[in-house]
Design a protein that fits this description.
- It is a single chain.
- With 228 residues, the protein is mostly beta strands.
- The protein folds into 2 domains: 1-33; 39-226, Jelly Rolls (Sandwich), CATH 2.60.120.1440.
- 13% of the residues lie in helices and 49% in strands.
- It has 1 helix and 18 strands.
- The chain has a 15-stranded mixed sheet that branches. Strands 14-15-18 form a 3-stranded antiparallel sheet, with no helix packed on it.
- The N and C termini lie far apart (105 Å).
Length: 228
């Protein structure tokens, strides 16, 4: 009888110890779970390199490779790549350095150091954040559309083209809203230009020159400039 009771007590202790190990280990394993939302490399052409977040070494990128916050991508001369985040397509041109600063269920934050990316944002829901940071500005996508962003190799100029959509620019001590709806208001003026460039000095160039009335229209109002 004593043997039976002793064996039962031993089994009880073993079960309690294993239960405690499971409870303690569960939070540790939870941190290893992969993120729910990732960017996936759908297409590669030429020399495309990949650097995982927290690593110093680069490796050749492969199709279907998932990318998340901290990961970086580099395309060589004449190379291309395409990533998808759900229905959003990110096309990367040649000689482009791009990385993900943040990527989760509600936020996409991309760092573009040099080169060109084309964004096709199909769905942007209330509360979602989609931002592209460059050396001299932050561009926030405010609605679905097509966007092309280019940074020169030295990181001095950022050029953004809105084929369709709307975004907010913060850079060069300036903040303004930009809408891609080009149309003529009169023979003398055009509103909502599609392409603009900001340099390190904070100068806004539209169609190769600076609009004189930029300051008074810098708070969500249509930007206008005289035509030649």
């Amino acid at each position: 009888m004593k043997t039976t009771v002793g064996f039962a007590n031993f089994c009880g202790r073993v079960f309690l110890t294993l239960s405690l190990l499971v409870v303690v280990a569960r939070p540790a394993f939870a941190y290893d779970d992969p993120p729910i939302r990732v960017a996936r490399l759908n297409y590669l052409e030429g020399r495309v390199s990949f650097q995982p977040g927290g690593e110093t070494d680069w490796a050749w990128a492969t199709v279907n490779r998932p990318m998340t916050a901290g990961d970086s991508l580099w395309t060589g001369n004449g190379s291309r790549a395409e990533m998808h985040i759900g229905s959003t397509a990110i096309r990367v041109g040649g000689q482009t350095s791009v990385s993900f600063l943040n990527l989760d269920d509600r936020t996409v934050q991309i760092q573009l150091n040099s080169g060109t990316i084309n964004l096709r944002v199909r769905n942007l829901y209330r509360g979602d954040v989609f931002e592209v940071d460059t050396p001299n500005l932050a561009f926030t996508v405010l609605r679905s559309g097509d966007y092309r962003i280019t940074v020169d190799p030295q990181g001095n100029f950022t050029t953004i083209t809105l084929r369709d959509g709307q975004g907010q620019v913060n850079g060069g001590a300036r903040r303004f809203l930009w809408t891609a709806a080009p149309r003529f208001k009169s023979p003398e003026r055009i509103i909502f230009p599609m392409t603009f460039t900001i340099c390190q000095a904070g100068i806004l160039l539209i169609g190769g020159r600076t609009p004189g009335n930029f300051a008074k229209n810098a708070h969500g109002q249509p930007v206008t400039f005289p035509r030649n």
